[in-house]
User: Which sequence fits this backbone?
């Protein structure tokens, strides 16, 4: 199993997600950026787009963000601060071959 790290996705209105994940993909200014456990420290501006991550049950969660934001990665903690969001989280089950 992949090593896990913590993810918090927060907007001014609510906490969208808080929990352990195994991978994260976010829309950064120069394209999509992937994050795994033990990633180097990072702060990056986010653009509108799909934020996707695999949770501990191996489900792919996708958030369609319509706002800008910031991603901070430090010591196996990833924090995403979004300007706003009204989009739900979609869970898509991943099947292993």
Assistant:
């Amino acid at each position: 199993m992949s090593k896990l790290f913590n993810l918090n996705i927060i907007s001014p209105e609510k906490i969208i997600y808080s929990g352990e994940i195994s991978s994260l993909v976010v829309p950064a200014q120069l394209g999509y950026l992937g994050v795994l456990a033990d990633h180097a420290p990072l702060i990056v501006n986010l653009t509108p787009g799909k934020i996707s991550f695999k949770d501990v049950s191996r489900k792919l969660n996708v958030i369609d963000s319509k706002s800008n934001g910031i991603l901070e990665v430090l010591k196996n903690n990833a924090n995403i601060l979004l300007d706003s969001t009204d989009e739900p989280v979609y869970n898509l089950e991943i099947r292993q071959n």
